[in-house]
């Protein structure tokens, strides 16, 4: 297997030799993946894999227009690269004009680590987690708790090179640990994201699970309705991440999304909440670092292949409770006279001073909603989402958790949740339950919602 750098050089050389494209963009991502699974208080499987994805993007210019051909392969054979280049150039030759055409980015020298070996990972990173789980297995067997779960660690190194001389490289480690615990028909879930497994709080996670299962010694049935609800950071992350995915500028400008203003234009500048909440992405956020440049194999309303290699900076999507920015690749920004705005692969929101326990203590009667599940969009015009609760909805009475309650189906919009929120807790690193396979880098506060809509009772367990 040749190095990623060699693959880049071969692709660019073949593109020059064929000469049927005005510009060529090469993306090569090397990925190493390690995983660990456990069930019924027993380690079951672990594994490691190595892979590479190579994308060749050919651009044919026709005055102010451009045609694009993008071809991708997971093969690591050097012989495949020349075929990819030929296929990409052929695709560009017959493609329609690209709606997101933009000028080529200027060249940029290769970073100092361009030629360095690609870092990896392996099952050994799970040593501390596995040790803590083993102790939990023994304690769980004695106490009747049964543990299930999954840990993964992925290290991806992405190289971008263009025929214009631009060079970018970034290594992005991504990890998570999710643990389910069951006891006498009750279940609970906790999860954390981690880039390096250097300090995963496995023992505190197991203690948290034991506490939640103890709350379920009493289980009561409650009807559908609107309840004062405390949303811990994980559930807030699931809602806000989906909101961030829907904050494309073009869709709002064309009146197709919940960020479109009545009568035309967008809702940028509208005040959502009196709470001083700022929702932002930042590739340099401590503990949530991610690629500081665009790397995409295909165009969408939030990213363009023409912007590959473009630097990404912090973006305040909502600032002090006011909608502040929408996502615009360079082409859309020029079309709608808006600033170029591209989000990083993380999401953070500021909060207040109260801990989750403080918020529980200040609740006369309400629900503690620990996880969301199976979320789907119902109405894009208002960004209404539906989904299920799972693995832990609890009743809070007079400042204490007194019981577990049945599961519900909910109907809520993240925009409307922000409008109605009356309290925000401390902002903490968290792992979203629903979107954790795609978005592990999040920091969110807990939120108090005075009338969270549990639209029906769910039989899901």
Helices, strands, pairings?
Elements: H1 4-18, E1 23-39, E2 42-62, E3 65-73, H2 78-94, H3 127-143, E4 146-162, E5 167-183, E6 186-193, H4 202-215, E7 219-220, E8 225-231, H5 233-245, H6 249-253, E9 279-281, E10 315-319, E11 322-323, H7 330-336, E12 347-349, H8 356-361, E13 365-369, E14 372-379, E15 384-389, E16 393-397, E17 400-405, E18 407-412, H9 414-420, E19 423-424, E20 428-430, E21 442-444, E22 447-458
Parallel strand pairs: 7-17, 8-13, 12-21
Antiparallel strand pairs: 1-2, 1-4, 2-3, 4-5, 5-6, 8-22, 9-10, 9-12, 10-11, 13-16, 14-15, 15-18, 16-17, 18-22, 19-22, 20-21
Structural description of this entry:
The chain has 461 residues and is of the alpha+beta class. The chain has two domains: 4-193, PmbA/TldD superfamily (PmbA/TldD fold), CATH 3.30.2290; 218-461, no CATH class. Helix content is 22%, strand content 36%. It contains nine helices and 22 strands. The protein has helices spanning 4-18, 78-94, 127-143, 202-215, 233-245, 249-253, 330-336, 356-361, 414-420, and strands at 23-39, 42-62, 65-73, 146-162, 167-183, 186-193, 219-220, 225-231, 279-281, 315-319, 322-323, 347-349, 365-369, 372-379, 384-389, 393-397, 400-405, 407-412, 423-424, 428-430, 442-444, 447-458. Strands 7, 8, 13, 14, 15, 16, 17, 18, 19 and 22 form a ten-stranded mixed β-sheet that branches. A six-stranded antiparallel β-sheet has the order 3-2-1-4-5-6. A six-stranded mixed β-sheet has the order 11-10-9-12-21-20, covered by helices on one side. Helix 1 packs across helix 2 (78-94). It is globular and about 75 Å long. The two termini are 47 Å apart. The model has no long low-confidence stretch (mean pLDDT 96). Pfam families: PmbA_TldD_3rd. Residues 225-455 form the Metalloprotease TldD/E C-terminal domain. This is Metalloprotease TldD/E C-terminal domain-containing protein. GO terms for molecular function: metallopeptidase activity.
